Amino acid sequence: MKLYWKLVLMQLKSQMQYKASFFMTAAGQFIVSFTAFLSVLFLFSRFHEVQGFSYSEVLICYSVILTAFSLTECFVRGFDVFPRLIRGGDLDRILVRPRSEVFQVLTSHIEFSRLGRLLQALAVLAYAIPTSEIVWSAERVAAVFLMLAGGVAVFSALFMLYAGLSFFTIEGLEFMNIFTDGSREFGMYPLSVYGEGVLKFYTYCIPIALFQYYPFLYLVGRSDDVRLIFLPLLGFLFLLPCYAFFRFGLRRYKSTGS
Amino acid sequence: MIELKHIRKSFRVAKRNAGFSEAVKALFRREYETVDALRDVSFTIRDGEMVGYIGPNGAGKSSTIKVMSGVLTPDGGECVINGRVPWKDRVAHVREIGVVFGQRSQLWWDVPVIDSFELIRDIYKVDGASYRRTLSRLTELLDLGEIVKTPARQLSLGQRMRCEIAASLLHNPKILFLDEPTIGLDAVSKLAVRDFIRALNRENGTTVILTTHDMQDVEALTERILLIGRGQILLDGSLDELKARSSSRRTLTIAYEGGVLPQLPGVTVAEDKPGRAVLTLDAAVCPVSEAIARISSRVNVKDFSAAGESVDELVASLYREFSI
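Above: the input entities. Below: the structure tokens describing the complete assembly.
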């Protein structure tokens, strides 16, 4: 763990060598996700609710998924840029060092500029929580944290799946963005608004709904079943097949010539 | 102790012809080609040996190194290094080896080299006292003094390579793999790196496996040579054995005055300017000493030099011989 912070610090030091670039990227991230926020805002200036969810309730949904996504993009960036590790030969170096592959991939890239997006997500959350009519209780506070944790787990798993695929093909991996960026965009609204099919897909195939929709129902008082807040933990199980797939790819790693 | 038995590894590579239409076609139907990087590689290297691993580009040198260092999992065959199978027991295995990939850096690009060293110390869990001892010795031998305080991106290639080698040795590995360590270095840096490797092997008994295209590296460092071509070991022997295989052709350059050079059997005059001649001779027919004796009985020889085939020529003729 101590080594983790040292490596994080090293990344920070390196990125701070290019301060202008860092702050511009961070600002860019902030503005880009701000447009998504505006789209929610404009929608609600015409319609006052979506399937009975109020504006601030949707904002909670939006900020939770965005926070989870930007945390993942910041700290699990190594898997997100994994094809680069393969192409640049950095993976060879990772494999000749006596630490676990996952640990080293995680510490190979930490994208602090994503904190711009995180900041925005947290700002929206800070706005939405007091304006919503949620009656806060210990369970509901726990629900928010569990949603975030589950979100980071599921997005990390998706990144890992993406990394695993890049062992087999470097081209054509863009389709994976349907699942990562796509999930983020879909997840801005409670998933039930898209209909039964989409909800099922995001429950059983890519378990976004486990941390976004079901605990959210409890959070806004649509369901009294307190067990729903623990569903995000099931999202952690999604890590297992994705990790297994990553290992499977690693065994077939070809390396690049030199 | 390194033991490889019948190691095989093949890659499937997508291929397509150049051009836009071909690129579009490749989107829908991909043609693959199987490349056998390693067909059947077997050898044994004892502790403390220094081995030169040579072969033309694409022969499988790097692939072999990557199999031995646990990066690649071969399709078949056995590889046991110090009692471990590299790709099965990766973490324990890599703790005992050092790897220098000549064309890639392992240092963190934007921070002073010493910061990278300290991180490597933590990654390998080297204890403080042993780290300080190794570092001071490496600093002295590789003349790192001031350059470790410079960010890696500002170092010259020679300085960086010295740091790379030091970084690979901070954990005192028993085996050092060097993949083209002198590529692109100037003469002074090359000599420094060679001297260091020799000292390391002599004093620490570190096993060194070196791949290179620089035959002077091989000549200066290694006693044993492994020649790989088309994924197979073609030759395993000492440099002297290699030389003995080569032709007995010698080049004799003489500076002389007075008289005319005699015609000798087995000797042809390649170049004859007044006072200076270049002769090629077949040492099997006419030994160099005999040629000198007979020439100097006719003319006044002021100076002469004799040269065999250079190691580069030797290796080139080996590649031709095995048609690789």
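Note for the figure: Residues 134 and 140 of chain B are 10 Å apart (CA to CA).
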